[in-house]
Hints:
By secondary structure, this protein is of the alpha+beta class. 41% of the residues lie in helices and 42% in strands.
Amino acid sequence: xxxxxxxxxxxxxxxxxxxxxxxxxxxxxxxxxxxxxxxxxxxxxxxxxxxxxxxxxxxxxxxxxxxxxxxxxxxxxxxxxxxxxxxxxxxxxxxxxxxxxxxxxxxxxxxxxxxxxxxxxxxxxxxxxxxxxxxxxxxxxxxxxxxxxxxxxxxxxx
Length: 158
């Protein structure tokens, strides 16, 4: 006497349903653990990318538009510049940025203010000497008339 075909069907059906249940549980878990960026977070991330491109390209017009009038720009060396000094240093200073790569970036938005933290790997030329740096940064952004501008930046050695 053989195995009842209904038993085989039910057994296979139960195995398939278990696999589907596990897959659904995994998908639900992933859905709740992946956080999508808000429109403000995306805009701030893009402003940060533009800031880095402005530094690399020494694009004073772009940087002037991205930073607030009251900018306080602190370097990891301890030097702090206001907006005028920052723009002058980027335009004619001894540092030429070759590449800027960010990792571990977080963006926290609170109304019209935001804080960005990240690690920055820099390739630059400082007074004619090629240099590689790895620093941490804290950036403070404020939304002016719908546009995010950098208010403060403080770099620190890692």
